[in-house]
Amino acid sequence: MDAAPATAEDTAPLGVTAWRDYDEAACALPGMYLGELELTGPVAEESDRLWELGARRVALSAPVDLTATGDLGAARRTVRALSLVRDLTARAVLVEWDLRLDPARPQDPGILSHLQPPRTLRGVPDADAALARWRAGHYLGKCLWRNGPGFFQIRDRRWGNLQRFTADEPHYRTAVDALAYGALPQSVAKDALDDFTEEHLVLHLGPLAWWVPYRVSRWTQEAMAI
After folding, report:
1. Is residue 162 a part of any domain in this protein?
2. Domain span at 82
3. Which residue, 100, 136, 163, 202, could crosslink 122 as a Cys pair with Cβ 3.0–4.6 Å?
4. DSSP for residue 71
5. Within a domain: residue 204?
6. Contact 65, 113 (CB under 8 A)
7. Could you give the percent of the chain with pLDDT greater than 90?
8. Looking at the domain assignment, is residue 92 inside a domain?
9. Domain count, the chain
10. How many other C-beta atoms can be found within 10 angstroms of the C-beta atom of residue 218?
11. How many angstroms separate the CA atoms of 75 and 203, rounded?
12. Distance between CA 27 and CA 21 in Å, rounded?
């Protein structure tokens, strides 16, 4: 099945500031500042471009606001920003971003705890404590997926214990491709979407459904230990 049809919002500009190092002191040295950049291409390509430019610390200019998903265009812009955070986290890039959850639709922030922790968190009770837990428990590889020969597997430790999900049905893999950068729910196989939603592997943002895990690009330890 196909993903949601493309619209102008698919490549709505995303403003970021980038540096060549993680450390603030190092970022102040000559040649480390990459400047303020406007990302207008597909997120996957822009993530690759930032990495190839040498970006290892990236700050998003605008907060990621999960309350701003009331129409398709707004939802696409929110999904676009979240996708950039996810894809850069997968590369172990230090992402500086701000997150507002929707208090009208209570959501456990743990669903996003595999992402680089935001600078600020709003929209949940006792947000400072929730953010502190996020920072204390974050590590690369907390919720990821990988391809195997004839199957794909998700490994999820967002809530402590390891949960593994393995699927060999081709339409499940097709669903992942559709959901990766946002899809209309009706464009995805219902059984796959229902299963992914039940396991908190998909986040519903207004009219769009978005794939939560990342496909890890850098291992911090041997793959067998993840």
Report:
1. yes
2. 8-225
3. 100
4. S
5. yes
6. no
7. 81
8. yes
9. 1
10. 11
11. 12
12. 6
